[in-house]
């Protein structure tokens, strides 16, 4: 029985090779996409690198005694 199965597999080795190759390529593509998703998600979660402590806030407002001209 096992000998017969091996004989069937050996006779269809070209089809089996193509099937195994297709499965391998699909696995590589899925692995690459998943790896890129994880990479971009980790980059998204990291801080931007800007320091938000000890920062000056500057505001400018027009003085009350100066009127703005409307054209």
Short note summarizing the structure:
The protein is mostly helical and 71 residues long. It is built from two helices and no strands.
Which helices and strands, and how do they pair?
Elements: H1 2-11, H2 13-45
General description of the model:
The mean pLDDT is 84. The chain has helices spanning 2-11, 13-45. It is an all-alpha fold. The chain contains two helices and no strands.
SSE string: HH
- Biggest sheet architecture: none
Shape: rod-shaped
Mean pLDDT, rounded to whole units? 84
User: What level of helicity do the residues show?
Assistant: 55-70%
Q: DSSP strand (E) fraction? A: under 5%
Number of helices: 2
Radius of gyration: 33 Å
Characteristics of this structure?
0% strand; single chain
